[in-house]
Amino acid sequence: PKDDPTLLFSGAGMNQFKDQFLGRNVTYKRATTSQKCLRTGDLDNVGKTSGHHTFFEMLGNFSFGDYFKKEAIAWAWEFFTTVLKIPQELLWVSVYKDDDEAYDIWKDVIKIDPKRIVRLGEKDNFWPSEAPSKGPNGPCGPCSEIFYDYGVNLGCGKPGCSPACDCKRFVEVWNLVFTQFDRQSDGSLKPLPNKNIDTGMGLERIASVIQGVKTNFETDIFKPITSEIRKAAKTAGPDKVLTSKINAIADHIRAVTFCISDGVMPSNEERGYVVRKLIRRAMSHCQ
Length: 287
Known about the structure:
Layout: H1 18-21, E1 30-38, E2 55-64, H2 69-83, E3 91-96, H3 100-109, E4 117-120, H4 122-125, E5 126-127, H5 131-134, E6 138-149, E7 170-183, E8 189-202, H6 203-210, H7 223-232, H8 239-261, H9 270-284
Parallel strand pairs: 3-4
Antiparallel strand pairs: 1-2, 2-8, 3-6, 5-6, 6-7, 7-8
Helix pairs in contact: 2-3, 7-8, 8-9
């Protein structure tokens, strides 16, 4: 990250806009980005799930005191249904439990079926997660997520199944964050100088939806890498286990490649240690 000593790597699309969200150095009011990100918090899940990665590209659009909820929601819906041509009936949305404004926009302006709108708590629909009760201090706000429905055959089959369920029927493809508060040390939410928009849509995840595959590792982003690894693999074992290892190796190869290309070489400290750790983990999956 440029000029931010608090972070080893950019882990979110909004990292470089901290000043703008706080109302400082606002020389432009709108931005659109494709941000290279690296996270290691879910390292043990990489390869085992359909969408966990260490390196990924986060697509997003941002407003610093310009447009707000109504425009962000309308443009997201237009992009999915008109540009990407995803059938409306396959899209569900969630809103923060107390955010009646966002709920009404989805119901009355976008006119999505209320049955496909769910209200969730601060763990799922506030950014950062659980910020009102647990922090961290700083810019935060409620969010509204858009989900793609893979269908009843993939899920738990229960009548009330919705994005609140963790049965993998629904995958979150875009998070619209309404950054309007500055959390204080006493836990209070102070309104920011401006109401802002921070959205995030993972390139790999939306690619899997558009390409009609069930996991990110089956997209054309990963296929060339996993195919070569599979050719070279000499380990025996259940296919599910082998596939999990191949996916993890592919992810780590991508992460290491992008880190090195940005000047982070393997070492024993700070960013270089993370790169070295990813290389070692990839090697451990080869055994």
